[in-house]
Design brief:
Blueprint lengths: L4 E10 L9 H7 L3 E3 L5 E5 L6 H22 L3 E3 L20 H10 L8 E6 L3 H22 L4 E2 L2 E2 L5 H5 L13 H14 L12 E4 L9 E4 L8 H20 L5 H4 L4 H18 L4 E3 L6 E3 H18 L3 H4 L2 H7 L2 H10 L4 H28 L1
Antiparallel strand pairs: 1-3, 1-4, 1-5, 2-3, 5-9, 6-7, 8-9, 10-11
Length: 379
């Protein structure tokens, strides 16, 4: 059994010099499959749920190539990697849909803290109680996925001191979200939040991970991991998704993997611990010192990831996707995008030069992968 999986990809549009320009109204009007965010400077596309990573790779690449072609038709525009307004523009909001009242609320409440680009990974789990257990586990291990994906060390042209400036500023809402003990607990809690106004609607649950489905909170069919920064290399993104899927397959096979029963901490202590871990991962990503949810030991993010990798490798191999998991080792070895960018910054590259190089490298990587792996399917 492999699980269905899909991605929601948010990306910035702009110039080859790295200036981010709002074009989402034109993109959404012209291209099927793209949706607007509250600010016009980024745009989102969603892949269909698929079982095979080979198909997912092309599902990630195809819309991006269509989007690039359309951007060229508008002028000399491109896609800009990274998860924050790296080179400037955080002083004002550019509304994509001025008539949308929910967007009014978002702009007035959060400002440009929400004008970030990210990737949400959705993995299908149809049993709601297994899904709640999965959300409990992945909520506590989400800092590991942030550590692998961090790509936002700059904001407004400056290095911020964070590897993920996005997650450092992103408004997690509501302020206190429990570890849901059951599906019934989740339903009751969501309905209470909406009644109290701490959530504007069922979508207004912005945490590192949440249960998702067609009629939330009642009909749920997938886990949505929301903590990841934008991973511009599709192979790296698939490796992170494979790591998540293998961990979830391990959890499905073993009901004992549950923070409510397998930790020395109580639920409130676990929530406090994971807040600290998320902050540490946003700051230092793979080099962050984290507290393990099970036994309280201090462990480097990269070492915790390596331990889990060893645990889940056989599961990925058994289910036929270990070749998509193995590039995770390259991220551990060479660093995530934020770490690679900061290495360049440390030897004298200014933030604009780092970003403009990354813009070129991102497009070259897409062309390479498309030509090598997707051309027959694109024809």
């Amino acid at each position: 059994m492999v699980l269905l999986k899909g991605f929601e990809i948010e990306m910035y549009t702009g110039t080859p010099q790295g200036e981010i320009v709002g074009l989402s109204d034109k993109i959404v009007a012209a291209l099927d499959g793209f949706v607007r965010e509250p600010d016009s400077r980024n745009v989102e596309y969603i892949t269909d749920p698929l079982h095979k990573y080979e198909n997912l790779l092309c599902a990630l690449l195809r819309p991006r190539r269509r989007l690039r072609s359309f951007l060229q038709s508008l002028g000399n525009y491109t896609l800009i990697p990274g998860s924050t307004l790296s080179l400037g523009g955080s002083d004002r909001f550019y509304r994509s849909d001025p008539t949308n009242p929910y967007h009014d609320y978002i702009e007035n409440t959060y400002g440009t803290k929400v004008v970030t680009a990210s990737v949400h990974i959705n993995i299908g789990i149809s049993d709601p109680e297994i899904l709640m257990r999965a959300c409990r586990l992945i909520r506590l291990e989400a800092p590991l996925f942030l550590a692998l994906s961090a790509s936002s060390p700059f904001l407004d042209g400056k290095a911020t001191g964070y590897h993920s400036s996005r997650w450092a500023v992103f408004p997690q809402t509501p302020a206190h979200v429990p570890l849901f003990t059951s599906h019934a607990h989740h339903i009751q809690w969501v309905e209470e939040q909406i009644a109290a106004g701490t959530m504007q609607n069922v979508r207004h649950l912005w945490t590192s991970v949440r249960p998702n489905g067609d009629r939330r909170p009642h009909d749920l069919n997938r886990l949505e991991l929301r903590i990841c920064d934008l991973v511009s290399d599709p192979i790296a993104l698939l490796a992170i998704a494979a790591f998540l899927e293998a961990r979830l397959l391990q959890l499905i096979a073993n009901p004992d993997i549950d923070p409510l029963t397998q930790s020395i901490f109580d639920p409130e202590e676990l929530l406090a611990l994971t807040v600290r871990n998320e902050t540490a991962a946003a700051t230092a990503s793979l080099d962050a010192q984290l507290t393990h949810w099970q036994d309280g030991r201090t462990i480097l993010a990269r070492d915790w990831i390596s331990e889990l990798y060893q645990e889940v490798w056989a599961i990925a191999k058994q289910h036929g996707f270990s070749c998509f998991l193995s590039p995770l080792q390259k991220i551990l070895r060479e660093g995530n995008e934020a770490q690679q960018w900061l290495q360049l910054h440390a030897v004298g590259f200014d933030s604009q030069r780092v970003i403009t190089q990354a813009i070129v490298a991102t497009e070259e990587r897409e062309v390479e992968l498309e030509n090598k792996l997707c051309s027959p399917l694109l024809a």
